[in-house]
Amino acid sequence: MGIGAPTGELFLSDVKAGPERLMGESEDGYGRSGAKSTFSTERSGVAAMALGLVERSLEMSLDYARTRVQFDQPIGSYQLIQLKLAKMEVARLNLENLVFRFIETRAAGKDMSMAEASAMKLYAAQAAMEVTTEAVQIFGGAGYMRATRVEQLMRDAKILQIYAGTDEMQIVAIARDLLGRG
Ligand SMILES: Cc1cc2nc3c(=O)[nH]c(=O)nc-3n(C[C@H](O)[C@H](O)[C@H](O)COP(=O)(O)OP(=O)(O)OC[C@H]3O[C@@H](n4cnc5c(N)ncnc54)[C@H](O)[C@@H]3O)c2cc1C
Question: How far is the CA of 126 from the centre of ligand 1 (A)?
């Protein structure tokens, strides 16, 4: 559907793996802590991808809002379109702040908590989906066409709500960590 990533099924048979290879299931907790640290890093990275999608959506939407004329006015003069652009800018700023916060945390040699990393991933994925969908809306029928490429941003954004843990699983992870049940 998007991100230009060919994804297929993988079949394994007669594979033997020791307990050190288990994720989230070993009794000594080795696998669990390893997986948690990976999740935390992976989730943080999604915010940077979301920021890129939002920046490009806003750039393209502003350009189209200035140049597409309907009913003798550029569509950017209509308040319903302005609201979409303003919300895109709010999302862009929020994502930029989240990415900078992550970079500063890492530069200080610290890790984000699971709740923080999951909250960042959840917000980033939802913001990217909302903004890219609104970008298609601003382009109208042209937005639905491959030629304008804005639909590609929307298809690319959808995976952010699914991989590295779905939106639903981020919610579970946030609540569990906050409640001390991680
Ligand atoms: C393009 C692409 C790239 C990927 N890359 C990777 C990769 O590099 N590495 C990797 O490990 N995986 C990768 N994945 C897999 C991806 O992480 C999983 O598809 C994703 O975690 C969801 O798991 P699932 O598909 O089994 O969905 P399911 O777990 O079957 O979920 C189906 C639905 O049920 C919901 N659901 C499931 N359990 C619960 C629950 N307890 N409470 C509430 N709702 C629930 C889900 O949120 C979802 O809406 C990739 C997938 C795709 C499509």
Answer: 16
Q: Kindly report, residue by residue over 86-119, the tens digit of the pLDDT.
A: 999 999 999 999 999 999 999 999 988 999 999 9
C-alpha 86: how far from chain center: 19
Best residue among 42, 46, 169 to mutate for probing ligand 1, ranked by most atoms within 8 Å of CB: 169
Q: Are 150 and 143 in contact (CB under 8 A)?
A: yes
Regarding the beta carbon of 2 and ligand 1, being less than 6 Å apart is answered no
**Residue with token string 């937005």:** 143
**Which CATH number is correct for 28-178, 3.20.20.150, 2.40.50.1020, 2.60.120.10, 1.20.140.10?**
1.20.140.10
Any idea where the domains of the chain sit in the sequence?
28-178
Tokens linked to 153: 């941003």
Q: Is the CB of 169 under 6 A from ligand 1?
A: yes
pTM: 0.90
Closest residue by Cα to atom 34, ligand 1, is: 168
